Each structure stands twice: as structure tokens, then as C-alpha cells.
Amino acid sequence: MPATNAPTTNSQLLNWVEEIRAMTAPDRVQWCDGSADEYAAMIQLAVDAGLAIQLDPAKRPNCYLFRSDPSDVARVENRTYIASRTADDAGPTNNWIDPEALKSTMRGLYKGCMAGRTMYVIPFSMGPVGSPIAKIGVEITDSPYVVANMHTMTRVGSKVLEVLGADGAFVPCLHSVGKPLAPGEADNGVWPCAPLDSKYISHFPEERTIWAYGSGYGGNALLGKKCLALRIASAQARDEGWLAEHMLILKLTNPQGRVHFVAAAFPSACGKTNLAMLVPTVPGWTVQTVGDDIAWMKFGADGRLYAINPEHGFFGVAPGTSSKSNPNAMKTIERNTIFTNVALTADRDIWWEGIGYDPPAGEVVDWKGKSWDRKEVAAHANARFTAPASQCPAIAPEWEDPAGVPISAILFGGRRPGTIPLVHQARSWQHGVFLGSIVGSEVTAAALDLQAGTVRRDPFAMLPFCGYHMGDYFAHWLRIGETPGAKLPKIFMVNWFRKTADGRWLWPGYGENSRVLKWVFEQCDGTGQAVQTPIGNMPAPGALDAPAGVSADDLAELLKVDREGWQREIADVREKHYPKFGAKLPKALWDELDGLQARLA
Ligand code: OXD
Ligand code: MN
User: Fold this and answer.
1) Count of CB atoms within 10 A of residue 11's CB?
2) What are 64-98's pLDDT values in tens digits?
3) Which atom of ligand 1 is nearest to the CA of 218?
4) Residue nearest to atom 1 of ligand 1 (CA)
5) 270 an active-site residue?
6) pTM tops 0.85
7) Span(s) in the chain for CATH 3.40.449.10
8) Ligand 1, from 73, 75, 227, 458: best to mutate by most atoms within 8 Å of Cβ?
9) What is the CATH class of 11-50+77-241?
């Protein structure tokens, strides 16, 4: 019986573990303590099963490479469900199934699904253990890969059970790879998962419960990240008056040592991790990292919003990461890192497209485990590194402060070759919510039903991650702005991705983005020089220096109000974007759209 050696007296937890054990029928149950020995044991199991390869310890100590099944390489949005009691609570932009019907289907899948495997019980904290902003989850999984990744991405172990106590609340997170083993069968080098049409990433927001089945990869399987810290937490935040957001958090210090903390939301693939770890080109300024993907923000006694990064590591996209794009990330992954779906070099090191150097001589093995033919990519486009945040050379000393850090500015951005200027500041909180609601990113390659060159709107970068109706989510943001005594952050929209008509980048990006951060800082500090425009405040002439290679004309283009472009933007929002949210789209946002149109006329 599992309960006999369970390291907790929490009866809700014990009952749940027993219920899942009876349903999934594992060979054994193991309670995870979060120790280094446990991590090493998980990795050893994976190595023995032919699922992991140790990299050269002289070059990359304690680093391992995993290769997933080619069908199990990314989040599966079309298999991700928000099973709230009514379809209207999930809203038109989430997949909804009746919760009882979904549970009945999934119980059928879970029945006996852990046969031949160990069931691991992982108590974890999202946020510093015991922080008033943190939340406890418990993940049950049959995957040693998940256990090892959860060690890095969350705080796992006995301390969490102490805080949970005999009657504390936790979010139950159930996960199985969906590949039971017959007697005597082993994985034998084959990444275990289920076929696409039996994968389910299910959320029950009223019950604060997650059931995932069939995928062993990333956000589908490490349930603390997108599932708990965004989809379930966003529903909790709505009910409790705080914010659970898809945002990085950075600390910005000026040459005089003054500090402002900034949170920023960008859709996937817009360089959030790079911005969080940016090395400024402006002399005397520093950027330090608090988080690269998720921010939980609550009001402090002084009326400011305080943010924590609920995560404990980085699950970053490897391709494109280089000493130029992100030197701090490259240093972070020098040791104690799990790599998934990158290429393996002849000298047993990692390699990927955009790493900034050619692979050394000799055979390169691609992410599928085949000798690389140099025709297809060597690393999968969504190959990842899982590395401890504490290893980041730019980690901010406050990153584990249980009180969180006070946020002065919130940035929204996306990849927009035209219209959206380099930076503009919202005129008010309500206008800022409007800007968040129209965030979009250019579709860069024709994919399925998406047409290259069109804008895909991803409001607040939360479209795949909001656990309830997006119209209600906008209303929640507006309500936050009406909190009595609130000293709200200023809101900005940024765009590093402007191009000329013939496709030339207007802005170099990377470290040069510090010039924009500097203006944002000055606006927060009351020293910024700004001009009012119909779209909001923008840097006054001379307030933002052009970096080398950006001509005065380029800068003028980056900072101009493109009236025709904005008219097209307004028409797209009015005709195609806002109608998606139906009657729940707050009137205040229609008013903002009308107001913008009138100011531009
Ligand atoms: C992520 C994403 O994996 O946003 O962080 O897709
Ligand atoms: Mn993300």
C-alpha cells in the first residue's frame, strides 16, 4: 500500500494518491523528495532505458540529451481542453468538453495505464516555498523524465509537504505518458507516449484540477508550467483579485543605481527569454532576470503590484540561442541541463541551428537519432533546454524574494513588420488593457490554415493559456485597474520587429533594446521626455538615441504614427478580432477603439 510510507498526513492527498493508484495500477509508488540523489536516479533510469545520453562531462557536466517521439514535440493546442461546467465559461477561444464526459473518456484511458511502471508523487511549489503568492501542486506521473524536469522547473520535495501540512490545499495534477508496459517489456529506447488522438491536456478550472494523458513533452507533461501556473492560476486569479500572466520579469538598474522592475508579455517565439537576459548596450545600465515566462502579481500593502516568478528554471527554446542572441542563456546551460531534441556532435556535445558556430568535424546525429543529412534541420525547431534559473549569470538577487518585486511597467509586444512603432505608452490603464487585447504577431511561414504575412492576434499572449473566457479576462484586467488605492504600473507597447517595404530590419534588436528600456525606465521615474500622439506617449525627439546602423530616417520611421496602418489595424480589430469574444467583450474596449479612431481622424 502506498500510504504506509507516505511522508505526509494530508488525508486529501493520501486519498487522491490511493484513488489514482487503484485506477492506473502501477507496479510501485514513489514519493519524491526533490534530492540530488533522486534526480540522479531518474536520469540513470532514463539512460538505462535507452532514452537519455550523457554528454561529455568534461565539456558539459551533468548534462543529458533526450530525444522524444517525432509525434510528441510540442504543446498540442488542439488536444488541450478547458472543461469548465459550462461552455460559456471556457469561451470561444478554448476547446471545451463537458467535464463529466471528458472524465469518463479519460478514466477509460487511465485504467491500468501505469502497468509495469512506477507512479511518482511529486509535491511541488510554484513560487518560493511558503511565499504568500506561491501555490502548491502535486503531480502524479509515470515518467522519470517528468520527475527530473520538475526538479529543475519547480521546487520539489519534503519542505513543500511541510508547508502543505495535514489540511493544506493543493492542485492535483495527474499525468501519464499513456504507454503501459506488458510483463517483461521495457521502453528500449522508444520514447513512451500515446497517439495524437488519445492525447488529452485537460483542465477543470472550478475544481482546480489537471488531467493530462498521452504526451511526455514540455507544457503537456510538466504540469506546473502552462497548466497550473497559467490556465488554472488565471481562473484562481480572477476569483481572488490578482494576475497570473504569460510574462517575463526583469530588473532594470540605471547608472545611479535606481531600480525599476518590468514585466513583459509577448506571444511564443518573440524572444522573451532573450529579453529577460538582455545585455544592455547603453553604458552603465544593467538588466537582471527574475523570470522568463510567467509572472504572478498581487497587490502589496502599498498599493503596488508585486510579482513572483513561480518557476525555478528555464524551459527555453534552443534553436536560435547563441552567444550573440543570449550569452547569459548559453552560460546557464553549461552544466546540470537536460536537452531535448537538439543535435548531438561527434564530441558528445549539443548543437542546433543558430547556435552561432558550425558543428565540429565528424558525424552529427539529428534530433530523430539519425546521421544528419544536412538537408533537414539537425535540431527540432521546438528543441528545448531545461536549466536551473540559479545558474543564470544575470539572475537578480531578488528572484526568490517571497514578497515578490514591485512592478513599475508592463510591456506588450509581438512581431509586427509594420504599423506598430518601436515604443508607445498607453494613455491610461484602460488604454493599456486595450493594447494588451490587440497584441498580435506576424505569421512568419504558411502553416496549416494560417496565411504567411497575416497578423495572428494573441491578446496578452494568453490566448492558449487563459483558463476561462477571454472576454471575462479583459474585464478582470479592467477591474484590477479600479482597485482602490492601487498604484498601477505604466503600460507600454513595444515592437523590435519593424521592417522596410523591401524587407530590411529597421532595428537591430537584442542588446540595443536597452535603449527602449531606458526610455520606459525614465517614464516610470518621471524624467522621460515624451510627446503626446493620437496613439499614446512616444519618445520626444532626441529622447532615444539611434544605435549604430540606424539612420535618423530609420529612427523617424520607427517612431512615427502610421495613420493608414492604424486605420487598417482598427478595421481588423473591429471586424475580425473583437467579434470573436461576443457579448463578453467589455464596452470599455470598444470605447477605446472608437476613441483611437476619432483621435486619428
Ligand atoms: C512556451 C510557450 O513554451 O510560450 O513557453 O510556448
Ligand atoms: Mn511561454
Assistant:
1) 11
2) 999 999 999 999 999 999 999 999 999 999 999 99
3) 3
4) 268
5) yes
6) yes
7) 11-50+77-241
8) 75
9) alpha beta
